[in-house]
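Annotated sample (chain length 141).
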Amino acid sequence: MEVTEAQREIRLVYVNGAVGQSVSGVIWLLSASLGTFLSVQAGVISLFVVRVFIFPPTQLTLRLSGRSATLSSENPLDGLAVQVAFIVPLLIPVIGAAALYNINWYYPAFMLVVGVHYLPFVFLYGMKAYAVLAAVLIGEG
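Output written by the structure step:
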C-alpha cells in the first residue's frame, strides 16, 4: 500500500479526524465548565482523567455511527497512529509539573502537549489543516 493510499484510508476511517476532534472538544468543554462552575480542581481532574482515554470514546462513536473503526492490516501507518496516541499520556508528567509550579499553567501546558500531538497528524492524515491546528494550540498555549 502506498503512503497516499494509507493516508486516504486513515482519512476515511477516522472521518478526517472529525470524530476525535468532536470528542476532544466535548471533553475540553466539560473540563472548562467544571472548572468554572464547580472548582478549579474539578476542571483539572476531569481533563486529566478523561483526556487520557480519548481513543475509546472516539472508537465507540465511530462504531455507533456504523463506520469501520479500524484500519486494514495492510496500512503501514497503523503503527504511527498507535504511537501518536501515546504522546499525550506520556507527557502528562510535564503538564503536572507545570501545574504544580503554577495552577494557571495547567490548561496552557495541556494545549502545548495537544498541539505537539497534532504535528504528526499532518503526515498521518496527509492534511495541512493539522499543521494550522497545531500552530494555534502551541501558539495559544
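Annotation: The mean pLDDT is 88.
Annotation: The two ends are 37 Å apart (CA to CA).
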